[in-house]
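[job 0412] stage=fold_complex status=start
inputs:
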Amino acid sequence: MTTTAPQITATSVVSLTQVSRWYGNVVAVNDVTMTIGPGVTGLLGPNGAGKSTLLHMMAGFLAPSSGTATLDGRPIWKNHEIYRIVGLVPEKEAVYGFLTGWQFVLSAARLHGLPDPEGAARRAIELVEMTEPSNRRIETYSKGMRQRIKVAAALVHDPRVLLLDEPFNGMDPRQRLHLMDLVRRMGAEGRTILFSSHILEEVERVAQQIEVLVSGRHAASGDYREIRRRMTDRPHLFRVRSSDDRKLAAALIADGSSGAVSLTPLGLEVQAVDFRRFTWLLPRVAKAADIHVWQVSPTDEDLESVFSYLVTR
Amino acid sequence: MNTVVADITYRAMLGRKRIWLLVLLPVALIAIAVLLRLIAGVNEHTAVTLMQTFAIGMMLPLLGLIAGTGVIAPEIEDGTIIHLLAKPIARPVIALTKFVVAASLLAVFAAVPTFIAAYILVRGESGVAWGFALGSLFGAVAYAAVFLLLGVVTRHAVAIGVIYALIWEGLVGGYVPGARKFSIQQWAQSLADQVSSSPFFTTDVSLSFAIPAMIIVTLGALWLAGQRLRTLSLTGDD
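[job 0412] stage=fold_complex status=done
writing structure:
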């Protein structure tokens, strides 16, 4: 794992206090209070949960409809000075396609007014392993390469705060692992890093701290192990099709691992309260009763239902 | 002014296909001038008509629209503007830089060709060439600022700009004398008239109105564009 990383000299904190954002009648973010400190924080939530809206407010590209968003106590909105210590990687893929990767990152360094823009650009490009293709125009890049050159441009001024909107989207597994490693390393250096994702596995591999957003509300906050436990300890709903649904239902309900069993035209719906015992039990019960199980499928495994379970708890 | 912003904007405007939008009309103007010269010889009346209807009446507002909105609207549309905005640079400086780029492009692609075309037709006669070139430059500055503002405030900048230039300045201005006062095109002609001594050319908007109006509109549009850029919001896909 990470060796003792060299610590950056100053750290920063992004704070949201009772922040809401609505568009007309639609509430995108609803009364969210959170503090993002040094280290890597994952902003987790299904698509449409308001992650981008929240990130845009932290990045100074959206005014909260109510509440305050601050960086080290100073307001973020209408304050271009924050970008001296903030790096932003937006989700939108669009970058100036007519520039080469080198020109793009160098322009970022110059826009920041860095004393040695060439040196800074070269270091940032090396960091994301884009040195070799950096003389090509960005329009020739793959999605993953664009993503990495955007990360390089966001890192060129060595920011204390890094905001990344769905940074791993469109990357191949190797690029993804590399960027994850980079993000972890920078977090270990004491930088305040927030990235959004709708994939739990992605978040738990990189972030120590997870903030869960569901339907614009702050659904959960904490260490990833805690969130993970709460997500797996929920009742699972399975759909089972077999040669004799009625007989299987009777056999299953006799055991405590199933909470409720119902017969439907599509098969049995089984509410498993003890997930591990249920998966162990089902084939054995079926075999003992001489029933052929044709299909077992989870009905609520999609992320949406996992999240809504978290919220309704 | 920020040279990096200017550099990226020039590259975007002059790169590959987009430059043709800027080149097409001035080339047509000069070609017509050459043709008229060959057919009709030196004719001040023809020159003034061509300058009034084509150079100032059509080419200038259209190029103004292409350059004024083109320096910023596509970047806002596709989100690339974030690269410039997420930097410790005051947003009005970015707006001002974009304006300077647009105005300078108009000087090259509108004012200079206007001078060349007029010079081909009448040489230095009656100050027609200088008059229309300066008038074109004068109008270009105002168009650049107004259309830049339009590009910042609305996604329909081009449509609104076309309606303004063709309907208001072209059509309404043709029939309603009062409307001419609030027409950048007329201000440009007013200056051209002042410089030129051609008897074939009169305008009805006085220079004492046109100059202050142009300055107020330009500065006002620039200020608004800068302010609007400060509060530019991104709406996420979610």
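[job 0412] summary: Chain A touches chain B at residues 23, 28, 47-53, 55-56, 59-63, 78, 80-81, 83-84, 86, 88, 90-92, 94-96, 98-99, 104, 107-108, 110-113, 153, 165 (CB under 8 Å).
[job 0412] exit 0
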